[in-house]
Design brief:
It holds the Pfam family HMGL-like. One of its GO terms (molecular function) is metal ion binding. Pathway: Metabolic intermediate metabolism; (S)-3-hydroxy-3-methylglutaryl-CoA degradation; acetoacetate from (S)-3-hydroxy-3-methylglutaryl-CoA: step 1/1. The structure is a single chain. The chain has one domain: Aldolase class I (TIM Barrel), CATH 3.20.20. It is about 40% helix and about 15% strand. It has eleven helices and ten strands. Strand 3, helix 4 and strand 4 form a beta-alpha-beta unit. The radius of gyration is 17 Å and the shape is globular. The N and C termini lie far apart (about 40 Å). The structure holds 3-hydroxy-3-methylglutaryl-coenzyme A and magnesium ion. The site of magnesium ion has 6 residues, from loops. 3-hydroxy-3-methylglutaryl-coenzyme A binds next to helix 4, helix 5 and strand 5.
Length: about 280
């Protein structure tokens, strides 16, 4: 049987958060309902952050209330602090994610905290989520390059990843936030991270600004990673990472890993339909 690769769909959150047009809630719900029939086990659909920081995500509770929940799919939400977790629990998110960074410049710009302060803030979030029986995922941003601080040392990534894992995150998603990673820098970063977190608990989250995301997935597969975040239609970016373009497109990752002999369990026709919807949302119609 073919080896399996899981694609974690992040389009409705990472893909849409950066859009300047306020996308109507019903359009977001329609996209998620389509994605729900594609075969994903996990879809990130919401973000309980300050609406002043990311206005596009202000309707997250309405999105979670409006979607048709498919059996076997976990609907995930970002939660930067306890207030965010309360919102996510009230809206019945199935899992949540805390999001830190390996560089001080991005940590400050994205969540207004130093790395050390962010880790202090995350500890009670993971504790409260555990008490509520909700799995927590951990993101590390800027795993090779930071828009503010430049190149990031692999050891800095490993330190933050290890702390999030010790805190109880079941998986650590490694973000090439501005898509500047190369197969060489991604491989060096993974070598350091794999020393402190098992490969089975790591995911690659690669933006495609430098058009190297698929190559970076290739070196990650060779390092034993089998989970990759992607967004249908290649939507996205991060409002606090200037120049960051979209996440690598889900359909491109699907085709790439399938050609390498892996199975994703995803329905390619549904992906194509969702990608079309996502692109139409970006262009405003
Ligand atoms: P702060 O200003 O330091 O915090 O922001 P604060 O506690 O002083 O609160 C400021 C205001 O936000 C207050 O409102 C709070 O009530 C409110 P005001 O009194 O001014 O009216 N507030 C909240 N509102 C709703 N939900 C909450 C919440 N918390 C506080 N949970 C904070 C700190 C973390 C809140 C802020 O910096 C923030 O929201 N940042 C989020 C930035 C963000 O969402 N970035 C994009 C996601 S990360 C990403 O895309 C990268 C990733 O894809 C991986 C990769 O690619 O690398 C994951
Ligand atoms: Mg991202």
């Amino acid at each position: 049987m073919a080896d399996r690769v899981e694609i974690f769909e992040v389009g409705p959150r990472d893909g849409l958060q950066n859009e300047t047009r306020q996308i109507p809630t019903v359009e977001k719900i329609a996209l998620i309902d389509t994605l729900s029939s594609a075969g994903f086990a996990r879809i990130e659909v919401a973000s309980f952050v300050s609406p002043k920081w990311v206005p596009q995500m202000a309707d997250s509770a309405d999105v979670l209330a409006g979607i048709r929940r498919a059996p076997g799919v976990r609907y995930a939400a970002l939660t930067p602090n306890l207030r965010g977790l309360e919102g996510a629990l009230a809206a019945k998110a199935d899992e949540v994610a805390i999001f830190g960074a390996a560089s001080e410049g991005f940590s400050k710009a994205n969540i207004n905290a130093t790395i050390a302060e962010s880790l202090e803030r995350f500890a009670p979030v993971t504790e409260a989520a555990r008490a509520a029986g909700i799995p927590v995922r951990g993101y590390v941003s800027c795993v090779t390059d930071c828009p503010y601080d430049g190149p990031v040392a692999p050891g800095d990534v490993a330190r933050v990843a290890a702390r999030l894992f010790e805190m109880g995150c079941y998986e650590i998603s490694l973000g090439d936030t501005i898509g500047q990673g190369t197969p060489e820098t991604i491989d060096a970063m993974l070598a350091a991270v794999c020393d402190v977190v098992p490969q089975s608990a790591l995911a690659g989250h690669y933006h495609d600004t430098g058009a190297r995301a698929l190559d970076n997935i290739g070196v990650s597969l060779a390092r034993g990673l089998r989970v990759f975040d992607a967004a249908v239609g290649g939507l996205g970016g991060c409002p606090y990472a200037p120049g960051a373009s979209g996440n690598v497109a889900t359909e491109a990752v699907h085709d790439h890993v399938q050609a390498m002999g892996y199975e994703t369990g995803l329905d390619r026709e549904v992906l194509a339909r969702a990608a079309q919807m996502a692109r139409a949302m970006r262009s405003g119609g």
